[in-house]
Design a protein that fits this description.
Elements: H1 3-9, H2 13-17, E1 26-27, E2 34-35, H3 44-53, E3 61-65, H4 69-72, H5 81-85, E4 94-97, H6 99-105, E5 114-117, E6 119-120, E7 133-134, H7 138-143, E8 148-153, H8 160-177, E9 181-185, H9 196-208, E10 213-216, H10 222-227, E11 233-236, H11 244-256, E12 261-264, H12 266-269, H13 274-287, H14 291-298
Parallel strand pairs: 3-4, 3-12, 4-5, 5-8, 8-9, 9-10, 10-11, 11-12
Antiparallel strand pairs: 1-2, 6-7
Helix pairs in contact: 11-13, 11-14, 13-14
Length: about 300
């Protein structure tokens, strides 16, 4: 048997059918586990924690974003985090939250990986949201059994330098204890920055500083952003879109163009049917459903067996 044939045997059928699994973080079934583009195998602890978030079977993830309160306060439909999150957690591959929400609103027995927001320091009352520091230590992340930590970077903003230095230091600390770092390409209030040129720059810089995966926005020519970033990209849902179908189409297009998953919040828990909405998103990300098929789940149809 040739080496190529032997390697092919280690892949799942889904991976053989899907060339997107070869982009960014390569997924191999076997002792090597997660392997970064270029062939460097991650330490076991990093692999294990990333595998909790990004499914090794298909290389995709549905993250539930619920960290908005760290700068927005009591966001609509997230005023009582426990009430909002409890019915959604069984359908999330991971949940992104602050330590305050972990402690007060997530049952320790809940079997959901935590992506811990560890940066902050500015509120929505401030015109410049880029002045963030690391506000939660890596020791605290270990105590909370976080599967990853998340920090925002503000490329091109007033405090760009500080946010990038924060990222570099956090990566060093994370690799010491085996906790991966998610870099979030924040744009503050300047939503017009969400184009391929800017996001490609920000994502590449995040990867160059050592981020293990990156959360960013979807845009025209998103595939170019994917191609130029050597680590997995997860697409943010952003503000609540006009319809559920709009959000489902966003998720579908992101996956089609090479994203490893989505991290949605408001487009799920501000929906009229939050559980149906996250089920619909899951069907797109993990089951290759079309937006219209996923919309049936939002409307209450039973998932296909």
């Amino acid at each position: 048997m040739t080496v190529a044939a032997a390697d092919d045997r280690t892949m799942t059928d889904a991976q053989r059918r899907d060339p997107r699994a070869a982009k960014g973080l390569r997924l191999r079934i076997g002792s090597n586990g997660f392997e970064e583009r270029g062939g460097r195998t991650m330490p076991w602890g990093l692999q294990n924690r990333l595998a909790r978030i990004i499914r090794p079977s298909d290389g995709h993830t549905v993250m539930l974003a619920a960290d908005h309160g760290y700068f927005l306060g009591p966001t609509s439909k997230l005023e009582i985090p426990r009430k909002t999150l409890e019915p959604l957690l069984p359908f999330a591959d991971a949940v992104m939250v602050t330590r305050g929400v972990v402690r007060t609103s997530i049952d320790p027995g809940a079997n959901v990986p935590i992506v811990l927001r560890v940066s902050g320091g500015a509120s929505v009352l401030n015109e410049d949201l880029s002045n963030e520091k690391v506000t939660t230590s890596m020791k605290e992340a270990v105590r909370l059994n976080a599967s990853a930590v998340a920090l925002s970077i503000f490329v091109g903003a007033t405090h760009e330098h500080d946010s990038l230095v924060n990222l570099g230091k956090l990566v060093d600390e994370g690799e010491e204890v085996g906790i991966p770092v998610l870099a979030v390409t924040a744009v503050g209030k300047e939503l017009e920055k969400r184009d391929a040129r800017y996001l490609g720059l920000a994502c590449r810089i995040a990867a160059e500083f050592g981020a293990h995966f990156v959360k960013t926005y979807f845009c025209d020519d998103f595939s170019k952003v994917v191609e130029s970033c050597p680590v997995p990209l997860v697409v943010a849902g952003g503000p609540k879109l006009e319809t559920e179908l709009d959000a489902l189409e966003l998720a579908y297009e992101a996956i089609q163009e090479g994203a490893h998953g989505v991290d949605m919040g408001r487009n799920i828990w501000q929906s009229s049917n939050p559980v149906g909405m996250i089920r619909g998103i899951r069907s797109i990300v993990h089951e290759r459903a079309t937006p219209k098929e996923a919309l049936d789940l939002v409307k209450g149809a039973k998932p296909k067996k």
